[in-house]
Amino acid sequence: MLFKQQAWLRQKLLVLGSLAVGSLLYLVARVGSLDRLQPICPIESRFGARSQAEFPLRALQFKRGLLHEFRKGNSSKEQVHLHDLVQQLPKAIIIGVRKGGTRALLEMLNLHPAVVKASQEIHFFDNDENYAKGIDWYRKKMPFSYPQQITIEKSPAYFITEEVPERIYKMNSSIKLLIIVREPTTRAISDYTQVLEGKERKNKTYYKFEKLAIDPNTCEVNTKYKAVRTSIYTKHLERWLKYFPIEQFHIVDGDRLITEPLPELQLVEKFLNLPPRISQYNLYFNATRGFYCLRFNIIFNKCLAGSKGRIHPEVDPSVITKLRKFFHPFNQKFYQITGRILNWP
């Protein structure tokens, strides 16, 4: 009996010992790989008095993890204060354009360790009810971040809403403004496709794109159709230029962001005065999705939601030709104002 108990005890100790050694080896490998992976990111002088401090990316990810725990109620306010996290008003806003690639741009910029994104569209400046709640309400909708980081939010409706430029100017007259655009006809069809999908989910019928985009009485482009009106970029931009100089805007080529994202992101880094940190390592092409996905590190990858990159319905080629001819003079003026030549057809 005693011999059996001793044998059983030895077996249990052997199993526990193996588990302990295995766990130790896993932790060593995990920490070692993270330390090798993460570069040091110097935050440059525009971010304040502590600008020369250096923050490892792993430390920044820890801060974001701590914030997540705080929001779940697993971390005290004292812990958040201890780690210098604050809620800041955005120093840059992606103001549009709807279906231009605003979500993709925001997620890709979030790869940068000096950038913290507001995950949801807040609609503060374009929604009268939200705007009436005041700037403190808006600030509390922002994520926690280091004082040296910049917060970015995106609400595509800002670009086309008349009251927004003045409201943003009153908050911060020197704010940086990002506009991501696509070829206007393609963007209009993408806009239509999103609305069509929503109708189909509710088992509702919807007009064909051609019937909405072309006025049946005049056979001319229907500028009352919102998807067409939104694509007249220069009309909306002129309203913004009453409040902000063109130097405070950066135009992102949404079509190029799909096929060749890194050069576009590098231009945005430069515009925001950020040290270059986003590299080809952070972007990999997913052949199944047909889009670039994001690689934060060897453990965490992310692709955009399945609703992105919807297949567009077939559109009458003559309607596409008519729309492109209509948009052409507006596009030329847009190039002239912004200095960004996009060579749309």
What does this 3D model show about the protein?
By secondary structure, the chain is of the alpha/beta class. It has a single domain (86-338), classed as P-loop containing nucleotide triphosphate hydrolases (Rossmann fold, 3-Layer(aba) Sandwich), CATH 3.40.50. It has 14 helices and twelve strands. The protein has helices spanning 2-37, 57-71, 77-82, 102-109, 128-131, 135-140, 164-171, 184-201, 209-213, 226-230, 233-240, 254-259, 261-271, 317-338; strands at residues 40-42, 54-56, 86-87, 92-96, 115-117, 144-145, 150-154, 176-181, 249-253, 283-286, 291-295, 301-302. The strands form four sheets. Strands 5-7-4-8-9 form a five-stranded parallel β-sheet. Strands 10-11-12 form a three-stranded antiparallel β-sheet, with no helix packed on it. A hairpin with a 5-residue loop joins strand 11 and strand 12 (301-302). The longest helix has 36 residues, at 2-37. The radius of gyration is 25 Å and the shape is globular. The N and C termini lie far apart (89 Å). Mean pLDDT is 83; it is low at 23-75. Residues 90-334 form the Sulfotransferase domain. Its EC number is 2.8.2.-. Keywords: Disulfide bond, Glycoprotein, Golgi apparatus, Membrane, Signal-anchor, Transferase, Transmembrane, Transmembrane helix. Disulfide bonds join 293-303. It catalyses: alpha-D-glucosaminyl-[heparan sulfate](n) + 3'-phosphoadenylyl sulfate = 3-sulfo-alpha-D-glucosaminyl-[heparan sulfate](n) + adenosine 3',5'-bisphosphate + H(+).
